Amino acid sequence: MFTEARIKLTLFYLTIIMVISIFFSAIIYQGATFELSRIQNRQRIMRPNSAFVIDPDIVRETKNRIFISLLALNGIILIGSGLSGYFLAGKTLSPIQKMMDEQKEFISNASHELRTPLAALKSQIEVGLRSKKISTKDLIELLKSNLDDVNNMTKLSDYLLKLNKQQNAKVEFKKVDLTKIIKEVAGTRNFKLNLTNTVVRGDRDSLKELVSILLDNAIKYGGGKEISLSLRNKILKITDHGIGIPEEDLPHVFDRFFRGDKARSHDGYGLGLSIAKQIADNHNAKIKVESKLGFGTTFKVIFS
After folding, report:
1. Higher-scoring residue by pLDDT: 205, 101
2. Is the pTM value of this prediction over 0.90?
3. For the chain, which residues make up each domain, given as ranges?
4. Was domain 174-302 assigned CATH 3.30.565.10?
């Protein structure tokens, strides 16, 4: 698909360039040959018997050389433009191809995550319907299990909606007290806080969502150990002392649906950190992660 589109775009570029090149070549040829003819005619009128009148054969030869030179130049332009156009077409289509590949992967992963609870829900209902003597107790357990599966699907759909909302969000930048947001999210829980009064520009609800995601992530993988939050010089740090992240997984922690081997033992869909990164990007902030396996993880959000 993209190879065909690249070739078509290259031909489009090439057509435009060659039309312009031939147009200017025709103007140059007409101008040069007209000037030669004008000089030749003027000499014939002014010096009819002069021996220095330009030889007509030389004029014809000069015109032919100009024509051949322009023809060769257009040939060089054709080859160069073809190669350049193919390269530029690839560059132009590359972001579109990347976006479509990400979209396909996203749909595939979302379908897979939804299929799992749906399959469990379907099989449980089928087993319940086949049972001729199902007890009230078993029926209640079946409904509870079905409700868990429905809740999981609801949670996943909520994550997908949040991610879509942040990807298409137009942030209205207003002054926001980030320190106050962190205190609200932390609540009365026993976290180690080291906060300085910091005001940033952004959307309050989105920034609250960002802090909540990073803090929930620290709680989930912190192993019940101390969690610290630091805010200084517009840099937010959230540190846990839990299981940590393997070095090979660090470049992928913000990828959608990515979950490392260590993370699979915990509930989740691998979308929280993707949402956090999108919020940070929307606020022109940088989000980074530092981790050592078995010693914990630190997430940094650097506001401009």
Report:
1. 205
2. no
3. 2-101, 109-167, 174-302
4. yes
